[in-house]
Amino acid sequence: MPREKPLEVEGVVTEALANTRFRVQLDTGHVVIAHVAGRMRKHFIRIVPGDRVRVELSPYDLTKGRITYRER
Questions:
Q1: What is the pLDDT of residue 41?
Q2: Which of 8, 47, 52, 58 is the most buried (most CB within 10 A)?
Q3: Do residues 23 and 13 make contact, with C-beta atoms less than 8 angstroms apart?
């Protein structure tokens, strides 16, 4: 059975939380909690409040996501 594709949306980081988690305000107006993807952690990409990011949302729980890309 194939995996379901995650939803990709963009937003702005509003708050840094513990354990590399962030509160992200999506362009649609929703607020989600997202963690940093392992590849970004491996390459030491820093994320601070105010950064525009791309977030993958799980189709099962739309309140949690994974940050996969930080805009410049």
A1: 93
A2: 47
A3: yes
